[in-house]
Request: fold
Amino acid sequence: MTTQVIVLNGGSSSGKSGIARCLQAVLPDPWLAVSVDTLVEAMPASMRTSEAGIEFAADGGVSVGREFRELEAAWMEGIAAMARAGARVIVDDVFLGGAESQQRWQKALDGLDVLWVGVRCESAVAAGREIARGDRAQGMAASQAEAAHRGVLYDLEVDTTRTESLECARTIAAQLSSSRP
Amino acid sequence: MTTQVIVLNGGSSSGKSGIARCLQAVLPDPWLAVSVDTLVEAMPASMRTSEAGIEFAADGGVSVGREFRELEAAWMEGIAAMARAGARVIVDDVFLGGAESQQRWQKALDGLDVLWVGVRCESAVAAGREIARGDRAQGMAASQAEAAHRGVLYDLEVDTTRTESLECARTIAAQLSSSRP
Amino acid sequence: MTTQVIVLNGGSSSGKSGIARCLQAVLPDPWLAVSVDTLVEAMPASMRTSEAGIEFAADGGVSVGREFRELEAAWMEGIAAMARAGARVIVDDVFLGGAESQQRWQKALDGLDVLWVGVRCESAVAAGREIARGDRAQGMAASQAEAAHRGVLYDLEVDTTRTESLECARTIAAQLSSSRP
Amino acid sequence: MTTQVIVLNGGSSSGKSGIARCLQAVLPDPWLAVSVDTLVEAMPASMRTSEAGIEFAADGGVSVGREFRELEAAWMEGIAAMARAGARVIVDDVFLGGAESQQRWQKALDGLDVLWVGVRCESAVAAGREIARGDRAQGMAASQAEAAHRGVLYDLEVDTTRTESLECARTIAAQLSSSRP
Reply:
């Protein structure tokens, strides 16, 4: 079978979106890159400050409520449908719930050929990159660095602590299953 | 039946995304707002400068190729699946192909309760707003102002030339069918 | 004399930055457009959440502290020096302190030929545009619509409530003094 | 004397702006961070596609014309005036002209206590980060990696190839001269 979906999971500032863009550059076919960040931006502004939506605490903590979960579930179904309709899709997500988050994706992506990739980055390094990028609440990187991987099963793990995004992308690309001769 | 999808179609700088955000603010339930702009951003950077992808000419002309059409078709299926899975969705698109573009959406959204909304803006006014926003190639607004509506059938049309986005959103919200008592 | 600086003052979402971009498009010479927003972005991230810096309250209120005022004063001197060195400059600011803010600019711009422009927008309309743009805390537009103009003296006022940015820019451009024959 | 201006010079995607944000975070006093990118954004949109302004070629080449040079010279005078008025300033620039660019800054910053910092990054690594960030024309990083440093004299050089931005910032911070006891 041919890989249809690549799921990149890792904490904030671990380098997932950079790897996604590098994957798009090194893979011969066009891949769509979707991110939970774009889901959050697609939601009503009011959901970013409500208990039922998604809340970003000043200390970097993130909590999500019932309405967020409902829209997220529908969004996952939509991403799966894009892949079933023929689009190759790279998903960039933070499994806030660890193994439980993966199960939600597994259910949505049922029947598709998925490559599960863990994107690791040492907590202190990710925290430093969070300061350097300047557009995230300080503390998110540290609080998610370990938690996002709890109980999650991967086909492959990369670590951006001392490896560039492009090199990580090449490692991932080499693991794609392909029915091409 | 209850409206599940609102499709906003209009030329560049006609005010669609502003209306989408106002709709999210005035509608009591949470709606996702998705845009063809986010589709373009989800594509590989290389597709933004290739004949098979999407090309933005210096005069504001936009042309799309085979690979763009394929990813777009899968994206439409995905948006439809989000709606079928229970998410209320506002789609913000430019029907570059007029009636033909609408048919593609009709096929993807088959079975869903859709409100088709035309977002008009006088060409000269849209061209002025294009200058004011400063992030679009000059000429897109003028070249799409009429072309995007060619042969398209609407449930409702709004005109932002002399009406604010919030007022347009209220007019659209009043037209939503609802099964609520 | 020839106008060297155009100061646009008005509340949040009154349309100042759109007018600035239109001015740049209609004026024959190249003008630099600078904004208090870029000053805020140039400050350390920590100043955006400290009493000594600038605080954006959830209700749209904005308060600034001692360190903000010091950096702002130096920034004003710098903008004045750019104009004295020959750059034509459009300044886009919100006079949170009304007449007092104008006096700070008058002191910094001493000896330069300045065109003072008030950018008005009815509070309710500005509040609607704030929702439509989606990137400002709700309430800023309403709280600043009147306060920003308190005691301020203008050479010219424009009102974006029912006039497009480009038309406002043309009105302002027609008022520039010029030593050209 | 006390350092009043830190000039960070290096090619595109060498990590200057990340270091600037980290410097703002680690230095005890508030520093303004200004960049040639914000100068370009402050210019009329038409200057980004004109020979007299600044042109970004598809291969990553950047060329600037007479009008750009004039506005840039005034901008440098303004930055110097901000520092003379008491603001501590971090400048993030690409010396497209190498030593000649440095002389322009030296002239503008005359009398100020400046720390000149070279920000190096191996060409291949910078080119990879250019792909990962996704918002720059491919080729800029490679074409500027060496050229930006030609003939330039530094107080200090850092290399982001294998050192994080935060660590580079700490190295720079340790070099600041200070009149504090």
In short: Chain C has a mean pLDDT of 94. The two ends of chain C are 12 Å apart (CA to CA). The interface with chain D takes residues 21, 24-25, 30-34, 38-39, 41-47, 53, 67, 70-71, 73-75, 77-87 of chain C (CB under 8 Å).
